[in-house]
Design brief:
This protein is α+β, with helices and mostly antiparallel strands. The chain has twelve helices and 22 strands. α1 runs parallel beside α9. The protein binds flavin-adenine dinucleotide.
Length: 412
């Protein structure tokens, strides 16, 4: 039974994970189940944020089921096929080791590229339209002891107001202060690598092709955006990345062209340069008393396979299903056994995906001739073994294993 002013769920963080969870809970349980999202960036324009993400088929199904994808479909570029090469920086030709045609089902591409700002704006608009309470303030303080002793607890927002909630969701990103305040440690390591991320314009059409070039310093990905534009995720050692982004425009262009090559014609424009340090981190636990972690607050992985956000949406789909099931049975959604179901569902899968991307990065980000032979034989085999490519495509599209309902495109 809720007291006056008490809500069912407070979601700290209105990024992809937080907003998607709020909309899923509203769709599953209606307005009598009260959900608030708190994030200081809510309502602020993100028009100058050029970052883009690959949204895999399962995540697109979830967004379509929630009525969000429809608002961004025109901005999304389907990935129609993908090539993988393994070469040295100065190789004139890049031998292609692997190609994927990009459909998981007839007419359903395995992924789409979309700029984050379109998706965030659509999620925020949907949340507002659904009547979800959005508070433009950070979640600042709470006492884990109070959460242990009662069926609700107070969370203080940065604007000084207090929200009494039965469940707190940490969707506050990789540097989650909620996770820290709850005393949940992180396991993992830095790669000593950083990703340089830029959008470029080019003369020729990419025809929906994504490219992953495994260069000795790490993967260099060219991901197609709407129009004659691509998003580049370019991995280097952190020191080299810092040197490269600080170069004057001409010298930067020359470094870029050496890796981008000229098959899409000349590079016609180069957007703002950003650098992200890369690491692999998983929270020791995804839950605590009346608390659950989702998205980057729970795990950060290497962007080599473009799966970070997709894993976060998988957390969201699993947690929404667990909460909706409990609430429909009249159970307390913040109870430990309910949250444990979520943790069992997601933590193992996260470790598997995290270690797979970690292994991939280690295998490819080096100059060893022996390892180069091993990986090229491996890639050649993937190309030849019947059925294996299809399985890999379905795995990358998030459609393998115990897939939550929303990711299968089913309503909760
Ligand atoms: C170079 C690079 C490329 C990537 N490419 C891809 C890709 O192609 N595909 C993919 O799936 N993933 C990709 N990722 C990963 C993806 O960007 C992240 O996994 C995703 O943004 C995480 O979403 P989130 O909602 O968990 O966290 P965030 O997007 O970090 O959102 C967290 C939100 O919490 C808010 N916040 C912070 N503190 C508080 C607080 N105390 N109270 C309230 N709110 C708070 C912040 O303002 C923010 O809005 C990439 C990552 C990198 C670094």
């Amino acid at each position: 039974m809720l007291r006056d002013g008490q809500i069912d769920v407070l979601i700290a963080g209105g990024g992809f994970a937080g907003l998607t969870l709020a909309i899923a809970l509203r769709q599953g349980l209606g307005p009598s189940f009260s959900v608030t999202v708190a994030d200081p960036t809510l309502g602020k324009s993100r028009a100058d944020d050029e970052r883009a993400s690959a949204i895999v088929a399962a995540a697109r199904r979830l967004l379509a089921t929630l009525g969000v994808w429809q608002a961004v479909a025109d901005e999304a570029q389907p990935i129609l096929d993908m090539v993988v090469t393994d070469s040295r920086l100065d190789d004139a030709m890049r031998p292609v080791f692997l190609t994927f045609a990009g459909e998981v089902e007839e007419g359903e591409p395995f992924a789409h590229m979309i700029e984050n700002r379109f998706l965030i704006a659509a999620l925020e608009a949907k949340a507002r339209a659904a009547g979800i309470e959005l508070r433009a303030s950070a979640a600042a303080k709470f006492s884990p002891e109070q959460a242990t002793a009662f069926d609700h607890f107070d969370v203080e927002l940065a604007d000084g107001t207090k929200v009494a909630t039965g469940l707190l969701i940490a969707a506050d990103g990789a540097h989650s202060s909620i996770r820290e305040r709850a005393g949940i440690a992180l396991h993992g390591w830095d790669y000593g690598q950083s990703a340089i991320v830029i959008n470029v314009g080019h003369e020729r059409d990419h025809n929906g092709r994504a490219e992953e070039h495994f260069l000795p310093a790490g993967p260099f990905a060219i991901l197609p955006l709407k129009g004659q534009r691509s998003s580049i995720v370019w991995t280097e050692t952190t020191r080299e990345a810092e040197r490269i982004v600080a170069l004057p425009a001409d010298a930067f262009h020359a470094e870029l062209e050496q890796r981008f090559k000229l098959h899409l014609g000349d590079i016609t424009s180069v957007g703002p340069r950003r650098v992200h340090p890369l690491g692999f981190y998983v929270a020791r636990s995804f839950i605590a008393e009346r608390l659950a972690l989702v998205g980057d607050a729970a795990h950060v992985i290497h962007p080599i396979a473009g799966q970070g956000l997709n894993m976060g949406l998988k957390d969201v789909a699993a947690l929404a299903e667990v909460i909706v099931d409990a609430a429909r049975l009249g159970l307390d959604p913040g109870a430990t056994d309910v949250l444990e179901r979520y943790q069992r569902w997601r933590r193992f899968d996260t470790m598997t995906m995290g270690l797979a991307t970690d292994g991939l990065n280690r295998l490819f980000s080096n100059r060893s001739a022996a390892l180069r032979l091993v990986r090229d034989v491996g890639l050649g085999m993937v190309d030849r073994v019947p059925g294996l490519k299809r399985l890999l495509i379905r795995e990358a599209a998030g459609l393998v294993g115990e897939v939550p309902k929303l990711l299968r495109g089913e309503l909760l």
